[in-house]
UniProtKB/TrEMBL annotation:
This is N-succinylornithine carbamoyltransferase. Carbamoyl phosphate binds at S47, L48, R49, T50, W75, R110, H147, P148, L149, Q150, C278, L279, R306. It catalyses: N(2)-succinyl-L-ornithine + carbamoyl phosphate = N(2)-succinyl-L-citrulline + phosphate + H(+). N(2)-succinyl-L-ornithine binds at E142, H178, K242, R282. HAMAP family: SOTCase (MF_02235).
C-alpha cells in the first residue's frame, strides 16, 4: 500500500479487517518491521484519538514517530501556486512537504475543509499537493472529504460485535444535531466504506438525514437513504451517529423539525442497537448522555480500535516500502 486516502486504496477489505483483528489479539507480531523507519504525523487541526492511536500503532511496529502541530507551531503555509507571498503565509507547501519527506519514511496528514468553497474542498487540493511534493507514502489522518482510518476502525468494530451468521447486520448512519457547521468527511467516508462492505456482502446499510443534508452521490451509491429517523432505525443493529453540515447548501446548517438526537426512547425502535460515534461527541446535543453512559454505547471500544486500524495500515505500508527497497 503506497497511500491510504480512501477505500479505493484497499485491495481486499475483508483481509485488512482480519489483519487488524489479528494484531489486536497479538500486537507485537511485527514489532521489528518498522525498526529504523520514521513516521511523521502532521496536524493542521486538533486531534486526540488519531494522534495517540497512530503513534501507539507505529511504536508497536518498532517505528520512531515525530509529531508536527503545523497549525500552532509551524510557519503559516501557502498552498496556492503563482501567488506573490507578500501576505501572512511564510512557507509554501512545495518546500514544506518536500522537507518533511526528507526526514520521514511515511507521513500522515490531517487537514480539515474550510467549508467555504465546495469545489476547492472537494478537489482535495492541499492533500494532493502534500502527497505529490513529499515523495514518501502518505496516510490520511482525515482530509477535507474523508477519514479512512476512522472508517476502517468502524468496520472492524462492527465485525467484532456481530456474531450472527444467518443474516447481515443492519447498519444505520444517523445525522444528529450540532451547533457548528462540521465537515462531511466522517460521514462521506463511513458511507463509502459501508457501501463497499455492503457490495461485498458484509452489511446492510441505510443513511438517515433530514431533507437538505444529502451527501455527495459518489460516497452513497448503493445505500438506502431515508428522511425519517424513526423509520430508518427500525430494527437497526448498529446506529452510527454523526452530524454534518449541508453539502448542497455548502457548509450551512438548516434547522430541522423532527427530533434527531438518539436517546433511550429512540433505541427502543432498534434491535437493541449498538451505538457508535467517532468522537469527540457533544453530550445531550448530538447524543444523549443516558445512551453514552449505558450498555448500548460502543464509542470507547470503537476509539480503542483506532490503534488496530492504524497498525494494519502502517504494517501494509512498511511491507511495501521494504519490498520496494
Ligand atoms: N476527527 C473526528 C471528527 C472531527 C470533526 N469534529 C469536530 O470538529 C467537532 C467540533 C465541535 O464539536 O466543536 C468532524 O466532525 O469532522
Ligand atoms: N475520531 C477522531 O478522529 O478523533 P480525533 O479528531 O480526536 O483524532
Amino acid at each position: 500500500m503506497k497511500q491510504f486516502f480512501s477505500v479505493a486504496d484497499v485491495a481486499n477489505l475483508s483481509q485488512l479487517v482480519d489483519e487488524a483483528l489479528q494484531l489486536k489479539s497479538n500486537p507485537f507480531t511485527a514489532a521489528n518491521l518498522g525498526k529504523r523507519k520514521t513516521l511523521g504525523l502532521v496536524f493542521l487541526n486538533p486531534s486526540l484519538r488519531t494522534r495517540l492511536s497512530t503513534q501507539k500503532a507505529a511504536i508497536q511496529l518498532g517505528m520512531d514517530v515525530m509529531v508536527m502541530n503545523m497549525d500552532k507551531e509551524g510557519w503559516a503555509l501557502e498552498t496556492k501556486d503563482g501567488v506573490t507571498m507578500d501576505g501572512n503565509t511564510v512557507e509554501h507547501i512545495r518546500e514544506a512537504a518536500a522537507v518533511m519527506g526528507q526526514y520521514c519514511d511515511i507521513l500522515g496528514l490531517r487537514s480539515f475543509p474550510k467549508l467555504q468553497d465546495r469545489e476547492e474542498d472537494y478537489s482535495e487540493d492541499l492533500f494532493r499537493k502534500f502527497m505529490s511534493y513529499c515523495k514518501v507514502p502518505v496516510i490520511s489522518l482525515e482530509s477535507a472529504t474523508r477519514h479512512p482510518l476512522q472508517s476502517l476502525t468502524d468496520l472492524i468494530t462492527i465485525r467484532e460485535h456481530w456474531h450472527e451468521t444467518a443474516r447481515l447486520p443492519k447498519v444505520v448512519m444517523a445525522w444528529a444535531p450540532h451547533i457548528k457547521a462540521l465537515p462531511q468527511a466522517v460521514p462521506n467516508s463511513f458511507s463509502e466504506w459501508m457501501c463497499r462492505a455492503q457490495a461485498e456482502g458484509m452489511v446492510d446499510f441505510t443513511i438517515a438525514h433530514p431533507v437538505g443534508y444529502a451527501l455527495a452521490e459518489e460516497f452513497t451509491r448503493g445505500a438506502t437513504v431515508m428522511h425519517s429517523l424513526d423509520e430508518a432505525i427500525e430494527g437497526a443493529d448498529f446506529v452510527y451517529v454523526k452530524n454534518w453540515s449541508s453539502y448542497e447548501d455548502y457548509g450551512k446548517i438548516h434547522s430541522v423539525d423532527e427530533r434527531w438526537m438518539i436517546d433511550s426512547s429512540k433505541l427502543t425502535l432498534t434491535n437493541e442497537a449498538k451505538v457508535m460515534h467517532c468522537l469527540p461527541v457533544r453530550r445531550d446535543l448530538e447524543l444523549a448522555s443516558e445512551v453514552l453512559d449505558g450498555p448500548h454505547a460502543l464509542v470507547i471500544q470503537e476509539a480503542g480500535n483506532r490503534v488496530w486500524a492504524a497498525q494494519a495500515v502502517l504494517k501494509r505500508m512498511l511491507e511495501q516500502l521494504l519490498s520496494d527497497n
